[in-house]
Write a structure and sequence with these properties.
Blueprint (H helix, E strand, L loop, with lengths): L6 H20 L8 E8 L5 E8 L5 H10 L1 H11 L7 E6 L1 H23 L1
Length: about 120
């Protein structure tokens, strides 16, 4: 079964996501208002983790990624306190492409519906 992650890694991903979401609520940074952690993928060696996020604000996703990166040490400390891992993974923050894609699909559907109403 090449490529299949062990259930332990799925659980690690889930718990890290929960820890990050809890810590995000405690951070007083207006750039991170309305930001949600949508997923986490920790590498099997626990050295690195990709954190996907979405933001309901109209701000630049790259700006949100920078703000999250500025709080990276705090996030990693929270992970270290709450999980018993060999090491704390280095975090990378990436805008969740599924959110942008879903928004684009909704926009296209609204336009299509609007065009149908105009043509009736």
């Amino acid at each position: 079964m090449a490529g299949k992650r062990p259930p332990r890694m799925d659980r690690v991903n889930q718990v890290v996501q929960e820890v990050l979401a809890d810590e995000l609520e405690r951070i007083d940074d207006e750039r991170l208002e309305l930001v949600t952690v949508t997923g986490v993928r920790v590498e099997p060696g626990l050295s690195h983790a990709v954190v996907w996020f979405s933001s309901l604000s109209r701000g630049d996703p790259e700006g949100v990624a920078v703000a999250l990166g500025e709080h990276r040490i705090r996030f990693q400390s929270a992970i270290g306190r709450q999980l018993r891992l060999r090491g704390t993974p280095q975090l990378s923050f990436v805008p969740d492409p599924a959110i942008a894609l879903g928004s684009r699909v909704e926009e296209l559907l609204r336009d299509l519906h609007r065009n149908e109403d105009d043509g009736s």
